[in-house]
Amino acid sequence: MTTLWIFIALFLLVSLVLIWFPHFRQQKMLQTEEAGVRKQTNLELFNNRLATLEKELEDEQLDQVEFDALKKELEISLLQDMKQGSSDESLVTKMKPKGLLWPVVMSVAVLGISGYFYTSLGAYANLDKTEQASPHAGMTADQVMQQRLQMMEAQAKAEPENSQLLFSLGHSYISANRYDDAIKTFDKAMVLVGTHAELLGPKATAMYYKANQQMTPAVQAIVDQALSLDPEDPSTLLLVGMDSFFTANYQKAIDSWQIILDSDRKDVDRSAIINAIDSAKMRMQADTDEMPNDAAHANVQNTAKTVNVEVSVSDELAQQVGSSDMLFIFARNTEGPKVPLAAVKVSAKSLPTTITLDDTTSMGGDVKLSGAKQVEIIAVLSKHGTVKPQTGDLKGHLAMVNVGDTAQLIIDTQVK
Fold first, then answer.
1. Do the Cβ atoms of 365 and 311 come closer than 8 Å?
2. Cα(245)–Cα(280) distance, integer angstroms
3. CB 313, CB 411: distance < 8 Å
4. Which pLDDT score is estimated for 7?
5. Which of 109, 119, 233, 241 has its CA 20 to 30 A from that of 352?
6. Are strands 307-313 and 413-414 parallel, antiparallel or unpaired?
7. Which residues contact 82 (CB under 8 A, 6 or more apart)?
8. Within a 13 Å sphere around the CA of 77, how many CA atoms are in the beta-carbon half?
9. pLDDT tens digits for 217-259?
10. How far is it, in rounded angstroms, from Cα 348 to Cα 316?
């Protein structure tokens, strides 16, 4: 906006200079011309009077002495008139400016036209309006979701044969918990492009959530059909792994998710799948008291550099735990920088539970749990899906635990 005002000021300045400069120049020329005319008149009068005196001298009407005296008087009179003309500013001060109306009218016209075009075509009306930082500012997450769904629905109505749009709309319906609409949308997409595993998988997921996360015969039939078409379909394998995890069939969950990793698919969140596999392996160890037999845990099993944490919620806060809450457990070294050495994320549905922290659950980098002697354990039961405690979340804390020991941690504090 500052740049705009600078350009406006420069435009007006140039316009006014072009209007008023010729006017003042003309006035100066007129004044100069007037002064020159007066001088010329005085000279002509002097020459005429001198010629008359010379004629009278020639006709012997004047003698030489009289002629010289009158000539001297005439020269003195000329000098006085010239001096008076140069110092007399009466012509300048009393003379009214000529043509003043024209530059005034032009100046008013330039200012008026500039103001008119700016208010009509510019952004004058928006000067006092505060620009919103985001088109969704002030809206809740549900309102943003509903707005996006309405836009996608309108686009799908305008483009009924856009299968990719229907695919995206179906996933959005799942996110909005509109499972019936999601199932119908995936069916419409399959009518257009045929039956494919990448459409059957999300349809089975919508049916699974509609059945309150139960692997019903109908859902299982869709899953079997999808895997028969593509044994490595990620959406179907994610569903199989998730259901197996919730039903404590951890080995099946690990196998399903490992297939996704081995397929080298680029359209999946590999870090999230790896974390899910590690969580399933920790659950297996907690249930069987045996470390899963794989290369990632072999070193941990030999060195016993682990911390087992038996996590529970106090009776006073038990009613505050929701089925969608997430439990974050992480360990930090009691010496040196307070950097998390290991962390695990599990669903609150598993409480009470035993969590095993070791080098396979490290946060990455060179600092690992096996390099510490004592750690502090922090548990956050999050209602917002983030590890940073927020108002309403529940917390628990152990100030010091020896690496290799088993500790009991009770979540007994609500974040205010």
1. no
2. 7
3. yes
4. 67
5. 241
6. unpaired
7. 39, 42
8. 13
9. 999 999 999 999 999 999 999 999 989 988 888 899 999 989 9
10. 16
Token pair, residue 378, equals 């922090």
Strand order of the β-sheet with 326-333 is 340-347, 326-333, 374-382, 394-402, 413-414
Helix axes 163-175, 141-158, angle to 10 degrees: 160
Cα dist. 365→181, 331, 361 in Å? 44, 15, 12
DSSP H or E segment with residue 179 = helix 179-193
Residue holding tokens 């000529």?
Answer: 98
| 165 backbone φψ class: left, alpha, beta (φ>0; ψ -120 to 50) | alpha
Q: Is 244 in contact with 210 (CB distance < 8 Å)?
A: no
- In a 13 Å sphere around the CA of 128, the CA atoms on its Cβ side amount to 1
Beta-strand pair 307-313/406-411: parallel
Three-point CA angle 387, 179, 165, nearest 5°: 90
* Average pLDDT value for the chain: 77
Separation between Cα atoms, residue 365 and residue 282, nearest integer Å: 21
378: β partners: 330, 397
Looking at the predicted structure, is the pLDDT value of residue 94 above 70? no
Cα–Cα distances in angstroms (integers) from residue 47 to residues 42, 133, 243, 381, in the given order: 9, 86, 126, 117
pTM beyond cutoff 0.85? no
- 108: its two tokens: 């008013």
